[in-house]
Each structure stands twice: as structure tokens, then as C-alpha cells.
Amino acid sequence: MSRSDRPAPEGLLLNVEHVTMRFGGLFAVKDLSFSARSGEITAVIGPNGAGKTTLFNCITGFYKPQVGRMTLHHPDGEFLLERLDDHAINRRARVARTFQNIRLFAKMSVLENLIVAQHAALMKASVFSLAGLLGLRSYREAERAAVAKARHWLERVGLTELADAEAGSLPYGHQRRLEIARAMCTDPLLLCLDEPAAGLNPRESAELNRLLRSIRDQDGIGLLLIEHDMSVVMEISDQVVVLDYGKKIAEGSPVEIRRDPAVIRAYLGEPDDTELPLTGGASC
Amino acid sequence: MLPAALRDAALAALVAGALALPMLGFRLVDSASGLTLAGRFDLVAWAAGLVFCGRLLIRLLPPLPAFPALPARLGDLRLKAGWAMAAIALILPFLPFADRNLVDKATMVLIYVMLGWGLNIVVGLAGLLDLGFVAFYAVGAYSYALLSQTFGLSFWVCLPLAGVLSAGFGLALGFPVLRLRGDYLAIVTLGFGEIIRVILQNWQDVTGGPNGISGIERPSLFGLSFKAAAPEGRQTFAEFFGLDYSADHRVIFLYFLILALALATNLFTLRIRRLPVGRAWEALRDDEIACRSLGINPTTVKLSAFALGAMFAGFAGSFFATRQGFISPESFTFIESAVILAIVVLGGMGSQIGIVLAALLLVGLPEWFRELQQYRMLAFGGAMVLIMLWKPSGLLSHREPTIRLGNAP
Amino acid sequence: MEYFLQQLINGLTLGAIYGLIAIGYTMVYGIIGMINFAHGEIYMLGAFISLIAFLAATTIGGSSVPIALVITLFATMIFTSLWGWTVERIAYRPLRSAPRLAPLISAIGVSIVLQNFSQLAQGARVKPLPPVFHGGVTLMEGGDFTVSLNWLQIVIMALTLVLMLGFTWLITRTALGRAQRATEQDRTMAALLGIDVDRIVSATFVMGAVLASVAGLMVTLYYGVIDFYIGFLAGIKAFTAAVLGGIGSLPGAMLGGLLIGLIEAFWSGYFSIEYKDVATFGILVMVLLFRPTGLLGRPDVEKI
């Protein structure tokens, strides 16, 4: 887990410029620009259907936007995300993600999920399986390192006891944390989380906040977060981007966002001088 | 309870009677004056009666007992069972009751076990539905036959070549089509299997067309042939070991050859499951989108499974050619693909031992009923349906993790 | 030109038959997402039943061919659809929530059973029926080649058209069709809204079997030769047609069927009859590479 190769915390990490994604005649994301920085949690919020998940799918390469540029800044160069295949975005640009409806390898064990996430490194060490088939020492070393990394993340998310259980059999909250651990095992510089707090109870939600903060502070990477739960957003994010109908309507610190009339209008429907509710915004 | 069951059974009998009426009740007879009908209404009555009784029994008897619960630490038990099976397989030809016929049949079963293990990589591990697996088996068989007849190469040279050629076909087919969604892949592989068969059938000059290729070179053991008399300057197996010539030697040798090939396939699979590529296959089967988000290129991972599965089919194919000494397109029909797929699915998708059990059940058992040719296939199809209804996820569907935190390196 | 026209007519006739079978595949796939491998066998049964019914009808009913044919048509539809219904009830319904491959293997098993059952019940030899229809219309008379459209070809195309119209009406205008489309989109939701999903699935199998049985009847009359093995090849051709047209799409299935019929007719007419299947599958692969969801299939946005 060396951190020397990561950019300084104040560095610009992701720069999204004029991204537009259309489905048929419908604009899911329209001319959207914003940026995210290393060592910060950037939250993307907005009412249902505001285009948040579409934005994520563009950043992680599952969709290709019709217009726009998404640049990921590495210490050793820049990657234009819209030009990379989805799997290359993780491997080369080092962007990892989780999914709104959890996508674990349900029949595999918790540990195996974390080992699969280290596929690229292990594949290299196994020399396209040859060294692995022969059981060479170099491969065994690599596998040991992979298990060590998995163990590290199991501890971080508190699943060490369940390492050999089938991932699909875990309770919901555990599955969410496992998915985050799995994404972190790919050594990302940017971690995109699609509604990580959805379906969690208050205690689990608090645990999640701690985990996300520790990833930001200890690992120094940037986090991009889609969240509906306003208490999570307000509590842990450093920067908030608000979308409505695919367009950015506000951007700023949580405190600024809470007072922004455009945001209030989008959420509550009419101009008012009330602040957004601080807690329990389950279905904003 | 009873009246309801009776009514239910009567209804079932009525349906059975209606089903049987056209197909069993009349028989098409070719007579001098053209096609005529002969009535056999007794058969309809029988069908209805049988269904009535059967349905009544099902309703009144308690349901089938569940599959015996397996112990918690299944891993050890399965390992033991695996070793026990291997040991039995090793001494089988020397057992007192083992005659030539039995060894021959065991060889046949082992071919299917090997094919099942090969297809298991594609279907069971990587989750790719391949309905044309027999095509690669055919490529292997014809590769060996043609290489050996055209260039006079020995079995041991041709075996790897046949594997490589089959894998090459796998790559060539897989490259364009593996991007397609699951069920589209099924129809394309099915079509590929048919294309290969049509080509074998019609490319007279090379494949011999429907007549196939005969007089294929039999394998030798380090140059020792299993014929009654050796060619100039060579020895036969019997001469070398000072034995009396017996045709059984070759049968036993072939048995051990396929046993070795099958075990090698098994060993390879067990090992590669614990390697990154093997884990990626299983991950891909569980969730392709998650794989992509983790930097795994699905196309290359699928391609590797496809090519490796094809390679093992190629090996099995060349063994088949050398064992039979004769091959023709008839041996490579869709039904073979279906049988191999059924073995994998009935075995429990990914379970190596399950595949052995399924092969014994589907290939071994019917071999004993060869005399009842037509009824045999009828029972075979029926068994496929019944086993699926009874155990929809296969005989042994429990999966052991490939690595445990406790005993990880 | 004359030759071309003749192949066009032959291809369309054959294609109509494939299309009718293909609809059964596409409907079942649309509604429960399974490849009903035994559907080709249902068509084979339809062919046998139609032959038997026709012989029975002419024996009992006398010499009026049109009346015998109408009786045959209805008897074939009724008895064949009963087979389709039974197969679903016994071999597929218990596997509704089983792993994806279980119903497929079960279907292959059913297919083997039906094939061997027919062989046992009716013998392995091909069954020839002397032509029932004689004559036709001569469309064009070239120097040494005559383009003709025989009565049977006219009947086949007309009947296909009528069935397609009736079927479209059934799917788009009736309560059953509406329930069926709802079930296709979301089975759980349909069940929650009070649709009896099992009944709808049964109805789907029955409809597919009805169309396949008509195809069986057509083939019996058109080629005059059937055996227990015809279901397999026709089945995979029809399934190919369904995929080519875009699986799940009813007009797609018909279009795919017509295309495959035309490809076969032209390929055997101009190139070689032996390799017509290779051409069919080759074109399928080409289409899928450029339009992965088939010709009329909706391009699906990956739901993530």
C-alpha cells in the first residue's frame, strides 16, 4: 500500500467537461462539468432520475457519452476516460466502482471476491497461468501478497471472520462493505460509490461513514459518491455537486448547498427560505 | 384425499389417452396401395391406464425422499471419494470380473468423462453455453486421422497437434462470437457444430464424406505396437515383454491411455481453478459487469476458457479416432453435444466428481442396454428430464472455495 | 430471371413454414427466457398427426379433399397443441425457478424422448404421401423454363398470412394477449397484478404448438415425405430464424423465417445444395456481429 505514487492531496484528480449522454431523444446528462480532487469526498446528489448513475456509468466506461471529455489526472500522466474500455478504466486509469444493486460474485467466497479483484497483478505474476500451473515460487509470492492485501481490507471492513463464507449469503450491510473492499483491492486512485448507504440501518450507516472517511484520510484517494441519504452527504462530503434533469444546478460545500435556492427548489418544488432537512432524507 | 386423487388421475389418463390417440392409436402402414392406417387402440387404453395408475401412486405415496444430506466438511469427503474412484479405475482391468467387454465400456465412459471435464471449463466454470462442443471433438478426431494418414505421424505426435488445432478452431470461432449474450452464443455454437458436420459430410476429397476415414493408425507404447506381428525392425508389445499375443493388451492399453488423458484433464482443471484465470472464469459466470469494473477483460477470459475446453475435446477426439480406427461424420452429431452438456449440468455445473457420476449414469448405464437400442434412447431422454426435475442444480452442486483464509499461503 | 422468380417462390414457401415454427421459439423465449429445444419435435409431431388425420379423414369422410383438409387442420391443431401443453406442464413448469440450464437440459431430454417415441410408434422409414394438390398457375413461360406457382404454395402463403393476422389480433387486441405481453415484460409484477402466470405460459406453449402444427401439416402436404427426424433440423433452422429476426419479436420471427427460406432456396439454386446450412449459419453470424440483437430486436441498453 505505498502512497508515494499518489498525487498530493490538493491535486486535481478527475475533470469532467461538457459531458452529454443521450438515450434516444432523452438527455440523461446534459453539458455537465465538474471536478473531483484526491483526498476529498465529492458527493453527487439530485432527485431520482437526475442522471447520477448515468454519470457514473460514463466515468467508469460502461456508457460512452456522445459529447464531452473526462480526464483522470495521474502523477504519471492523464487518461481520457471516454476513450478507454470499461475494463481498461479500472486497470489503467485506476478508477474503481461499486453498484447501486450490489454486484458481488455471489457463489464465490468473500476472500475469493477480493482475490479476483487483484486479477491483473496476479495474472502477470502467473505469466498467463504458466508459472501458476507449474507452481513456481514467484507466483506463490504474488498470491501471498494478494491474500495479505485481501486480509488488510477484510479487517478494514470488519469481515475477517466471514472470509470463507459464500458472498451471496452475507447480510445486506456486509455485502455493501465487501463490495467496497473489493473495489479497493484494485488499488484505485478514484473510488466511485453508487448509493453505498442505501438500505443500511443507522448503525451500519455510521460505520460506513467511518469507513469512507478512513479511505479518504488513510489511503489519500478521491471518492465520488452518489447518495440519497442527506445525513451521509452532509456529514462526510467535502464537496457536493447537485444534478437535476441531467444538468448541474449547484456546486459547493455542504453548507453552501444547503442554503442554495436552486437546490431547495429542485428538492422541495417551490422557492422557500427553509433549509434542506439535515437528517433522514430517505427519498429526496 | 382419495376422491381428489382419483379425479386428478382420471384427468391425467384422459390427457394421456388424447395424446396417444393419434400417435399410438394409428400406425402408418406402407402397403401396395399407398399409405394406409392400422388401428391399435389397445395401446391407447394401455397408455391411459398406465398414466392413471402412475398418477394415482404419485398422489397417494409420500414424496420422494430428499437427496441425502451431505456432511458439512464436504471437501475432505469428496477428496477421499475422488481418490477412491481413481484407485478403482486404476485396478479395474485386473479385477477378476473384468472382461474385455467391461474394459471397453469403461473406456467409453472415460471418453465422456474427459469430454465432460473439458466442457465443464466452458459451461461449468466460465458459464458459457456451448451447444456445439462435439465440433471440437470432431476436429480432434479428423486432425489425427488426416495427419497420421497424410504425413505418417505417430499418435503421440498427433495428439498435441490435434489439441492445438482444436484450440485454434475454438479461438477462431470464439473471437467473433464471444461478445454475444449468453443465448446467442448457444445458437451460434450449435450452428458451428452443424457446419463442421456438414463439411465433414460433403468435403469428399479430404474427409471421405459420409464414408469417413478408415484404417487409422493404432497407438503404440514407446514404439511397441499392439498388433499380432510387428513391422520390419520393430517389436510388438507381447514380444518385448515375453507375453503371448492377446488382443486384450490393446484394449487394456487404450483404457489406461484414456484414463491418463482424463486424469490429466482433471488435474489441469483442479489446478487452474486456483489460478487467476480460473477464478476469473467463475467470477465471469457470476457477474460479467462486476468483472469489467474490476479490470478484467471478459473477452480474453472467455476466449481462454473456450480454447482450453476445445483443446481437451481435441485430445479426446484423437483418442477416439485411434481407438475406433475408423471415423465418420455420424459420430459427431448434435446428440453427442447434448449428451456431454447433460453430463456437465446433471453433474452439478463445476463439480468434477459430479461429472463422473453423471457420465456413469448417462453413458455407462445405457451401454448395458445396447440390445434395446430404441427403448434405450427413450429411457435416456426420460432420465434427463427426471434427473433435472429431481435435482435442478445437478447431483453435486456444492462448491468449495478455491482458497481459504485459514490455510492460505 | 425465370429461374430467379421460381427460387423466390420456393424460398418464400419454405420461409413461411420456418417462420411459423420460429414464432413458437420467440414467444417462449420472450416469456420465460428459455430455449424450448423440444419445439422442433412438436412440429414433427404435428406433421405425423396431420398425416394420420388426413388419412383418417379421407378414409371416413370420403373423397372430398377440401373437407378432409379442413378436418385435418383442426384435428392437427388440437392434438398437437395438447402435446405442447403437456410438455410444458410436465417438463418445464416445475423448473420455473431452477438454474438457467436446467430447463434447457430438460427440453433436450424431451426432444430425445419425442423423437424416439415417434420412431417406435410409427417406424423409422420415411412416410410418403402422394400429392394431394395438382396443378397451379403458370406465371411466366420463358424459352425453356416455366415459372409456376402451384395451388399448394398459394394455400401455404394464404394460410400463413391469415394465421399471422389472427395472431397479431390475438396479441394486440385481446385480454389474453395483453396479459401475455405484461408477463413478458415483468413476470413478478404481472403475478402481483393478478395475472395467472402459469396459465399465460401454458397458453403461450399452446399457441406456439398450434402454429408449429400448421407448419407440420404444410410440410406433409408440400414435400409429401416425413420421418421422425425432421424436427431437429427444422427446429434449429427456425430457432436460427428467431434469433436472426431478433428473439422476442414476433414480426422478427416471421421475417427471419422468410429470410432463411430465401437463403436456402437461392443458395441451393445457384451454388450447392450441400452447403446451404453453412450459408444459413454464416449469415446468422454475420447479422449478429453487426446487429447483436437481430434484425428487429430492440437494441438493449445494458442495465447497470
Q: Would you mind describing this structure in some detail?
A:
The complex is a heterotrimer of chains A (284), B (409) and C (304). Chain A is α/β, with parallel strands linked by helices and 284 residues long. Chain A folds into 2 domains: 1-94 and 187-276, Rossmann fold; 106-186, no CATH class. Helices cover 37% and strands 23% of the residues of chain A. Chain A contains 11 helices and 10 strands. Chain A has a 6-stranded mixed sheet, with helices on both faces. A 4-stranded antiparallel sheet of chain A has the order 2-1-4-5, with helices on one face. Chain A is globular, with a radius of gyration of 19 Å. Residues 1-9 and 278-284 of chain A have low confidence and may be disordered. Chain B is mainly α and 409 residues long. Chain B folds into 2 domains: 2-60; 75-390, no CATH class. Chain B is built from 16 helices and 4 strands. Chain B has helices at 2-23, 41-60, 74-91, 100-125, 134-151, 155-177, 182-202, 204-207, 237-240, 247-272, 276-286, 288-293, 298-324, 334-347, 352-367, 373-390, and strands spanning 26-31, 34-39, 213-214, 326-327. In chain B, the strands form 2 sheets. In chain B, strands 1-2 form a two-stranded antiparallel ribbon. A two-stranded antiparallel ribbon of chain B has the order 3-4. In chain B, β1 and β2 (34-39) form a beta hairpin. The longest helix of chain B has 27 residues, at 298-324. The model of chain B has no long low-confidence stretch (mean pLDDT 85). Chain C has 11 helices and 4 strands, in the order ααααβββααααβααα. Chain C has helices at 2-32, 39-61, 65-92, 101-122, 151-173, 175-185, 187-192, 197-223, 230-245, 250-270, 276-290; strands at 127-128, 136-141, 146-150, 225-226. Chain C starts with a helix and ends in a 14-residue tail after the last helix. Chain C has 304 residues and is mainly alpha-helical. In chain C, a hairpin with a 4-residue loop joins β2 and β3 (146-150). The chains are: A alpha/beta (284), B mainly alpha (409), C mainly alpha (304). The A-C interface holds A 23, 53, 57, 62, 99 and C 301-302, 304.
Radius of gyration of chain A: 19 Å
- Corresponding CATH architecture of the largest domain in chain A: 3-Layer(aba) Sandwich
Largest sheet features of chain C: 2 strands, antiparallel
Coarse morphology of chain C:
globular
Query: Which secondary-structure class do the elements of chain A indicate?
Result: alpha/beta
What is the subunit organization of this protein? Answer: heterotrimer
Domains of chain A (count): 2
